[in-house]
Amino acid sequence: MSIRHALLALLSEGPKYGLQLREEFEARTGEVWPLNVGQVYQTLQRLERDGLVQSDDDAEPGPQKGFRITDGGAAELAGWLRTPPDLGAPPRDELVIKVLIAVRLPGVDVHEVIQAHRRHVVELMQQWTRLKEEDAEHDLPLALAVDAELFRLDSVVRWLDTADGRIKRAALAPPPPSAPAAPQLRRRAGVRR
């Protein structure tokens, strides 16, 4: 998650203090990703170092230091909003890695491993669904964040079901007659290893 760009977006509306930025970030993201004020000020220092924001501590006396976006920060924000995130390479997903490793480990019941994770993910989906029903009806940012998480978890459950079925079918299939051609296929398809 880009806290850096989220703060630039909030500052594009006008000068703000660090605590104010934290409160607005949490309110606009449905309070799904808590942010501590130390992280906000650390990010603001980096943004100021990079010339993307300016502090205006001379404008008002007092302990609060306000920040405003610069022209460079506005250009950075505009570029971020219109640039798709890098979705080309698969993310390093701990659950996927765990299942891939478990498949080749002797003595491991992969079906049991998959089902344990599936139960956990379904419980999480139930918790998010309750949150949606109880709190998200009149809170658009929270509703959007909950929808995103429910879709993500649903895809995890579908992958676990597909993996479980594929592993069961592979266990029933006879062994291949020769060495696998997978490395050559990966190279031809351009898949990175």
Polypeptide structure, described:
- This protein has 193 residues and is mainly alpha-helical.
- Helix content is 64%, strand content 5%.
- The protein is built from eight helices and three strands.
- Strands 1-3-2 form a three-stranded antiparallel beta sheet.
- The longest helix is centred in the C-terminal third of the chain and has 33 residues, at 140-172.
- The two termini are 25 Å apart.
- Residues 7-78 form the Transcription regulator PadR N-terminal domain.
Secondary structure category: mainly alpha
Taken in chain order, the helices and strands follow as: HEHHEEHHHHH
Instruction: Report the total helices.
Output: 8
The overall pLDDT, averaged over residues, is 87
Helical amount among residues, as a percent range?
A: 55-70%
Shape by Cα distribution: elongated
Q: Which stretches are low in confidence, meaning pLDDT under 50 for 5 or more residues running?
A: none
Radius of gyration, taken over Cα atoms and rounded to an integer in Å: 24 Å
Q: What order do the strands of the largest sheet run in, or round the barrel if closed?
A: 1-3-2
Distance between the termini: 25 Å
Assembly category = single chain
Profile the largest sheet: 3 strands, antiparallel
- Portion in strands: under 5%
Beta strands, count:
3
What would you say about this model in short?
This protein is mainly alpha-helical and 193 residues long.
